[in-house]
Amino acid sequence: MKKMIVLVVVLYTTTQICAQGVGIGTSAPHTSAQLEVSSTSKGLLTPRLTLAQRNLITAPATGLLIYQTDNTAGFYYYNGLSWQPMVNGGGMGAAYLIQNNAPSGPDTSKIWVNNSPANNGVWPMQTYFRGKWNIDKYYDSVANYVSQYKPLVVIATGQSNMIDRPDPGRTNTPDSRILLWNGSAWVTWTLAPNINHLGFQFSKNVAAMQDRVVRVIVSAVNGESIDAWYAPSGARYTEIRTMITASKTKAVDVILWRQGEAQNNDFPAEYKVKLDTVINRFRNETFFNKINPIIVGGLGSSFTKGGPAKYFETINELDDPSLLYQSNTGIYSGDFTHLNGPAVDSSGRRMAAVFLYGKQKSQNSVSESFSTGGSIYSRNSEYTGGDNHNIVLGLNSGSHASISGQNVAVGNMALRGNVANSVALGFQAAGGTGNISEGVGVGAFALSGVSEQAVTAVGYYSGGNLGYASTAIGWKAGFGASGGSNTIIGGNAGYTSGGSANTFVGYLSGYNSRAGSNTAFGYNSLRQATGSFNTAIGDEALSNSTTSGNTALGYHAGMNNTFTNIIAIGNGAVAGKNNQVVLGTVTQTELKVNNYRFNIAQPLPATEGYVLGYNASSGQLELILSSIKANIALDFLPIISKGNILSDVSVPGAVPGDIVVVEQDASQSQITYNGWVTAPNTVRIKAYNISLLQIDPAPKTFKVVVYK
Fold first, then answer.
1. Going by C-beta distance under 8 Å and a sequence separation of 6 or more, which residues neighbour residue 696?
2. Is the dihedral of CA 311, 312, 315, 319 positive or negative?
3. Model-level pTM?
4. pLDDT for 403-450, tens place per residue?
5. 3-state class of 162 per DSSP?
6. Which of 249, 289, 248, 257 is nearest to 276 (CA)?
7. Are 318 and 279 within 8 A, CB to CB?
8. How many Cα atoms are found within 13 Å in the side-chain-facing hemisphere of 18?
9. What is the largest CA-CA distance in the chain?
């Protein structure tokens, strides 16, 4: 008795029951409310269910409210027919207008959800842009799913291989995006345990690859002859039209055809005529577009008067560009006629791939394509990357890989390392085991042996060992090259070259060149050169040069050069000392400047750091100061990845507008140095770390040249 009195007291202190309703936290519930909960520190917690748990509620009452925790989480209510999201003011950045007529006037802050009954449960979600309402996405009110694609409507028809197939041990998980017409309503397609279905597997793959709802109408009977579709009142064709009408389907997007095993006694020509008639009947229906695809599934050892190959030939001879063929080569087992569970999986994946990517031209031309989480990969690949929107096609492609981002690998043993956001096309393209990100390798062995970021190689064996942010185009271009930020174009260009920030264009240009910051255009230009800051334009220009700061323009100009800071212009022009300008190979030449002509005799007087130039004031050729050299001791602090550090140094005689060249540190190829004049007698040196790691540069005395 005491316990009962305590319970009554507790209830009285927490809940006030009045004639007009129940109040929790208030003694005066509103007269319009049966229940009012009042609090300034707590909220109301509704039942929280997963999508699967929500769908198990038996006979939900109209107005029933729950909070769904997965598959587009949020509050949902039952409207008497289906579960609907509470989208108005749903915290998605815009107010939703759920109505069957267009909103009055423009309103860019709203999303109009057109729930017209004529839309058959598929509600376009539209935003106002450029003077009209435009469809952005679709909400399928049956699947309770939003997608950028309109739900795909499929007819799956045929014989025994288009009905439930036994698959011992299979446990099926429903996908809310896959709907089946059950004769009276669209429902989530739920397969029983130990069962598989070709139409379901096709839908599962399309739904995964395009993230869209798929609605399926199935009409199939074991052992049915093509006459059930061919005859004017055939049972299958009549059933299909009846279900189209009952389901209020306005348009069918694709037809899956899996029939032919019952036609053992038909010659190919006979079957061809009947199938052509069936296809034309579908094409002439108002619900099926004349160019929408019809996917024909291949047969096993049926169609005995010609076999599978003849069956394919029969299909391919039909004059219908949207008739697609899905090969079953290599996936049959058992009686070679009926699909077992794994064969249903494979056929469904192949049908989805044919639907998405086009017609199969040969019975054996397409290796099986699989899909998972937006990724597509071939059966004979070694891809294990999972849900990362990748395409991996080819024998042993994608093996050893830890694949992230969006990648494409096509070719035997292509893209076999740890990769991200990369493309590899060709035999063993990017086929090493290194780490590649933002890479492109096109051609057999392209990018083989590379472990870097932002690298591009196009051509047989191109780009082996390329460094960061480098490009190699051409047969063996950049093969064995090291160093970053290089651009290499031409057969064997930059082959086994070293150093960073080089540009080599032309067959064998930069071949085995061993330093950085060089530019070479032309056959064999800068071949086997060892210096930096050189520019070579012309056949074999500066080839075998051993020094830095040189410019050569012309056939064999500066070839075998051993002097620094020379300019050699002309066929075979060769300098005889440091800081020399050479025009051609003759002993005397004429120079014209602003209508003045000057005879330049050899040898010209030359002084270290001076060049011959035209003085506009005197109208004479004079020796003009050309450069200032200085040795600067620098000790930079550690530099973070992609970071830089600045240091101002004194160089007497330097003025703004002069050009500054800073010697590069060959022992620290990941650090680049440049400079500029910021004020009279002051040069600013910048050290830039191009690598992905922090680097602490060693103290060094740099050679700095200021060109006037």
1. 637, 638, 639
2. negative
3. 0.46
4. 666 778 787 667 766 777 778 787 777 776 667 888 888 888 777 777
5. helix
6. 257
7. yes
8. 18
9. 130
